[in-house]
């Protein structure tokens, strides 16, 4: 989103991340149950798997109950990654790399992402226990 600053893709990602962050987990859970469990019938509604089910079947039954918890954290992580990328793109070392004539992909991968992901990784590590 930060690479497309103030464009429609940036606004869609920012609005999506903000909307899943402000909704409580139980509201997000009800919406996901309605979409994926009732209307599309892709995921089971209950988290109780059949007796003697294998490991992957148990994981399949746990997707829908754990998805709202992940989405709330994802919105926060996406906002942190976006702000870190914007800050790194506006830094002196990025301008220096561009003025040296490095390809844009190299600038993004070697200079911008390395510095932008440090606060994001910290947020992921602190929120994992939640």
Report what the structure shows.
With 130 residues, the chain is an all-alpha fold. The chain has one domain (2-127). 75% of the residues lie in helices and 0% in strands. It contains five helices and no strands. It has helices at 8-22, 25-39, 55-89, 92-99, 104-127. The two termini are 26 Å apart. The relative contact order is 0.13. The model has no long low-confidence stretch (mean pLDDT 87).
Question: How is this structure best summarized?
Answer:
Helices cover 75% and strands 0% of the residues. The protein has 130 residues and is mostly helical.
Helix share, percent: over 70%
| Number of separate strands | 0
Poorly predicted spans:
none
| Major β-sheet profile | none
Q: What count of domains describes the coordinates? A: 1
Kindly name the structural category: mainly alpha
Query: In DSSP terms, counting alpha (H) and pi (I) runs of 4 or more, how many helices?
Result: 5
């Amino acid at each position: 989103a930060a690479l497309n600053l103030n464009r429609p893709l940036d606004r869609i990602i920012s609005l999506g991340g903000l909307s899943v962050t402000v909704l409580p987990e139980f509201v997000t859970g009800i919406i996901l149950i309605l979409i994926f469990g009732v209307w599309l019938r892709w995921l089971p509604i209950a988290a109780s798997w059949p007796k003697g089910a294998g490991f992957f079947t148990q994981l399949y039954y746990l997707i829908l109950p754990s998805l709202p918890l992940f989405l709330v954290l994802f919105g926060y992580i996406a906002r942190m990654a976006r702000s870190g990328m914007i800050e790194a793109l506006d830094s002196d070392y990025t301008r220096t790399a561009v003025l040296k004539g490095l390809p844009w992909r190299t600038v993004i991968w070697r200079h911008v992402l390395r510095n932008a992901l440090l606060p994001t990784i910290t947020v992921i590590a602190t929120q994992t226990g939640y």
